[in-house]
Amino acid sequence: MPSAGPLTAVGFEFGAAYALIADDRLALRFSRRHYVRVLQTAGAILIAAGLFIIIRPPSYSREESVFKLGALEAKIQQQHSVPGWVGGIALGAGLVLVVLGLKKR
Asked: Tens digits of per-residue pLDDT, 58-102?
């Protein structure tokens, strides 16, 4: 049976909840489990965002001033789409995080 060590406070990054755990080894296991869950969640979000960018690239508009003479100004509004390689990088980073989360278990 594990010996009870001093009380340890383990805090969550995403909330104000704290748990008091009597055994240090249990606290270590609990914090690793939490870390793994955060890795996997972040990886899943990156994978979803990467797939979205690859399948249906979002677009944004940019306004440029072409000509300005006193109070008279001519502007151009251009539509640009997010390049597919950005989605590929997000997808790859998400896969790496999920794999790291699975290996930490």
From this structure: 999 999 988 888 889 999 999 999 999 999 999 999 999 999 988
Three-state DSSP at 76 gives: strand
Q: 35-67 b/e with 16+ CB inside 10 Å = b?
A: ebeebbeebeebbebbeebbeeeeeeeeeeeee
Domain count, the chain: 1
> Which residue, 42, 51, 48, 43, is CA-closest to 84?
51
Q: Is residue 99 part of a domain?
A: yes
DSSP secondary-structure letter at 105?
-
61 membership: H or E segment, kind and range: strand 59-69
